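pinging the channel bc i need a second pair of eyes. not urgent but kinda urgent?? the chain im working w is below, pasted from the shared doc
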Amino acid sequence: MKRPEKLVRRSIQLLVGLFLYGIAIAFLVRSALGAAPWDVLAQGLALHLPVSFGVITVIISGIVLLLWIPLRQRLGVGTVLNALLVGPSADIGFLLIPTPDQLWLQIIFFALGLTILAAATGLYIGASFGPGPRDGLMTGLHKRTRLPIWVVRTAIELVVVLIGWLLGGVVGIGTAAFAVLIGPMCQFFMRIFAIPLKNSAQALPMSAQSLAETRDS
């Protein structure tokens, strides 16, 4: 028997998670201590294209989803909404969040961004509406190449961050800190916000395991 209240809760959790994900990206970028790899790429592209960071994030997500086709990955409603909503949410964050001019404020902004992003990941993945575009790319390549998840994730993010850095994106100590901390933090929040669903008891831990080794948004 279906439970409409659970669907409502999942939908709200998904939308709140995606909105907070964009806000978290804005905090991380504003900190100027080094963004996450995919955001470094968006930063770099924003310096050369006449569109906002958020629009570029949506475009990148669309390109990543096209890469799902040969990998035969299946879309979920959460996947599509992730691709469409995180970028605009980040643009809203940039309008609301100022650029700090003192190191201690930069550190606070980075810590806030990292924590909010991890919580947002737990919210939207815990809603069980499908993985984000970048998560699906990672798991798809993992299945096709038979390489370990961490190898695929590292290769993807090294390529992404290198291209972003060459285009002018900010790479710093925050980028390294993000890589080290985001996995355990996401796993923590996944356990808090996971909504149990019938026949999904085994699928959800697998998502948590993947996210412990990567990021999306």
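so Residues 4-211 form one domain. and Confidence is low (pLDDT under 50) at residues 200-217. — does that match what u expected or am i reading it wrong
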